[in-house]
C-alpha cells in the first residue's frame, strides 16, 4: 500500500538559527515588524510503499535518522497519510 | 495576541526536483528501496503578533509572497496556531 510521509526537520531550539535571524531582519525591513522568532528548516515529503502505516512510519523514521536529519543540531517530526 | 505560523514552501510539482532525486538515490543506497517521489522544501515557523488569527494569516501570507517563496518555482501552504 502507498503512504506519504510529511517530515519537518528543524534546528534544535537551543541553537542559534542564523538563517532565521536573517529572515527576521529582512521581514522587518519589508515592514512586517510584528514577526518574531523565525526558524527555518526543511520540509520533506516522500511516497513509501509499505504493508501498514506503522511500517511506513518506521521507514520514514529510519530515513530521517540515517540521512535527512543531523541529529546533533536538528530535530525532526513526521506524519504519515494514506495515498 | 501571539500566533505561530507554520509554513511549507515546496518546489512546484511540474518542476524537476534535483535535491529530491539526490535524496531518493541516497536512501536507495542505504537500503530504503521502498521510498519514491522524494521532494525537499523549506519549513518556516514564526511568531506573529496580531489582533486575530486572520490578521496573523495575512501577515504570514505577505511574508511568503514578499520574501520566503520564489513564486516562479515554489508554492507555499501555511497554517496558524494560537500561542
UniProtKB/TrEMBL annotation, chains A, B:
User: Is-annotated flag, keyword Coiled coil?
Assistant: no
A GO cellular component annotation in the UniProt record = cytoplasm
**EC number, as in UniProt:** 6.3.5.3
Which GO molecular function entries does the Swiss-Prot or TrEMBL record give? ATP binding; phosphoribosylformylglycinamidine synthase activity
**What keyword terms does UniProt attach to this protein?**
ATP-binding, Cytoplasm, Ligase, Nucleotide-binding, Purine biosynthesis
EC class, as a word, reads ligase
Q: What is its main location?
A: cytoplasm
Give the record's pathway: Purine metabolism; IMP biosynthesis via de novo pathway; 5-amino-1-(5-phospho-D-ribosyl)imidazole from N(2)-formyl-N(1)-(5-phospho-D-ribosyl)glycinamide: step 1/2
State the Gene Ontology BP annotations: 'de novo' IMP biosynthetic process
Pfam families xref list: PurS (PF02700)
Compartment annotation: Cytoplasm
Q: What reaction is this protein's catalytic activity?
A: N(2)-formyl-N(1)-(5-phospho-beta-D-ribosyl)glycinamide + L-glutamine + ATP + H2O = 2-formamido-N(1)-(5-O-phospho-beta-D-ribosyl)acetamidine + L-glutamate + ADP + phosphate + H(+)
Answer yes or no on keyword Nucleotide-binding. Answer: yes
Protein's job:
Part of the phosphoribosylformylglycinamidine synthase complex involved in the purines biosynthetic pathway. Catalyzes the ATP-dependent conversion of formylglycinamide ribonucleotide (FGAR) and glutamine to yield formylglycinamidine ribonucleotide (FGAM) and glutamate. The FGAM synthase complex is composed of three subunits. PurQ produces an ammonia molecule by converting glutamine to glutamate. PurL transfers the ammonia molecule to FGAR to form FGAM in an ATP-dependent manner.
State the similarity comment. Answer: Belongs to the PurS family.
HAMAP family assigned to the protein according to its UniProt record, in alphabetical order: PurS (MF_01926)
Subunit record text = Part of the FGAM synthase complex composed of 1 PurL, 1 PurQ and 2 PurS subunits.
Name it.
Phosphoribosylformylglycinamidine synthase subunit PurS
Q: Which organism is it from?
A: Flavipsychrobacter stenotrophus
Amino acid at each position: 500500500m502507498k503512504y506519504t510521509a510529511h517530515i519537518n526537520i528543524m534546528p534544535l531550539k537551543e541553537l542559534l538559527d542564523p538563517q532565521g535571524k536573517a529572515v527576521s531582519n529582512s521581514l522587518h525591513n519589508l515592514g512586517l515588524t510584528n514577526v518574531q522568532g523565525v526558524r527555518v528548516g526543511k520540509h520533506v515529503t516522500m511516497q513509501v510503499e509499505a504493508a501498514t502505516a506503522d511500517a511506513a512510519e518506521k521507514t520514514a523514521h529510519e530515513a530521517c535518522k540515517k540521512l535527512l536529519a543531523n541529529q546533533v543540531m536538528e530535530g525532526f517530526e513526521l506524519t504519515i497519510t494514506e495515498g
